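Exam revision sheet. Question 4 asks you to relate a sequence to its structure. Input first:
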Amino acid sequence: MLYSKPPLSIAEQIELLKTRKLSIETDADLKTIEKQLNRISYQRLKSYFVSFYLPQQDTGFKKEFKPATHFDKVIQLYDFDFAMRLLIFDYTSQIEIALRTQLVNVYSLRHGATWFLDKANFVVKIIDQTTGYDSHDDLISFIKTDCHKDCDHPFVKQYFNHYSIPPNAELPPSWITMESISFGKLSKIYKQLKSSEEKRNIASYFGTIPDYLESWLAALSYIRNICAHHGLLWRRNLVKQPMLPTKKNRRLIDANIPIDVRKLFVTLCCLQQLVKSTSMHNTLKSRLQLLFEQYPDIDIQKMGFYTDWDKEKIWN
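Answer key, C-alpha cells:
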C-alpha cells in the first residue's frame, strides 16, 4: 500500500485532533495548542497521544481520545519524558567518561600507547573467509572513521598538527584516540577485549564482573542513543535489556519482586550500580524522586517502577 497522507497545516492538525475528540473548550486552548504544535511536531507527539486514546475495540478501531483529555496533559507527559532523557544523558555521560579513562589507564600501562591496534588483546572472529577480514579489522575501521571525522577535536587536531604518526601505529595513542570515540564504540571495544586481568580490573572498578559490565554498557549505550534522538522512554519496551545478577550477594533487585526487564527501571538499576562505584556525589536516586514529585500524575509503573522501589539495596 502506498503512503498517501498529505501534509497538514497547524490549523488542519488541530481540526484532526478535534475529530478525535480532544477536549478544546476555549480560544485560549486553541492558542496554546497552536503554540505547542509550532514547538513540537505533530509526528513527535503521536507517540504520546496513544496513551490518551480509548481502546480501539471500543471506538470501532478509530483513534479517539478518552473523555476530558486536554492537550496540556499530553504536553505534561512529553515534558516529563524530556526531563527523564536529560537526566539519563547526564549520568550515562559520567559512565562514558569513566569507561574511557579506565580503558586508557589500564591497557596503556600494560600494553602500550596503541594497545587497541594489537589483535592479541581482543577476541577475533573472521567476518569474510575470502579476504580474512575480521572483527578487529572492523573495529579499527570504525575507530579510524570516528577519529578522522572528529579531526577538529582539540586533542586530535593538536596531535596531527604537531606529530607524525609512528610506523605501524595508524592512529594517535589511546588517550587521544579514545576521546573521539562514541559511547557505543567504547562499549564494543570493551566487549571484544579478550578475558584478562585488565578487563576484570575495569569491571571491578565499576563494581561488577566483565559479563555484566558488557551487558550493562550495551543497554546504556542503547538508551543513550534513544535520548540523543529524543525518542520516547516512558512505557517503552527496550530492545536491549541488561543481564541481571542472580547470585544473592550481587542482586540489584529483590528476587521476590516480579519485574519486566524490558522496562527502563531495570536499566536504571544497572546505571545506579555503575554510578555508585564511580561517582563522588551520587544523586541519581534523589533526582529521580524529585522528577516524580514534579510530575505526580505520571504513571511510573509504565517504566517498571513499583512501590518502594527506592528502598531496594541498590538505591541505598
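Marking note for examiners. Strands lie at 126-128, 133-134.
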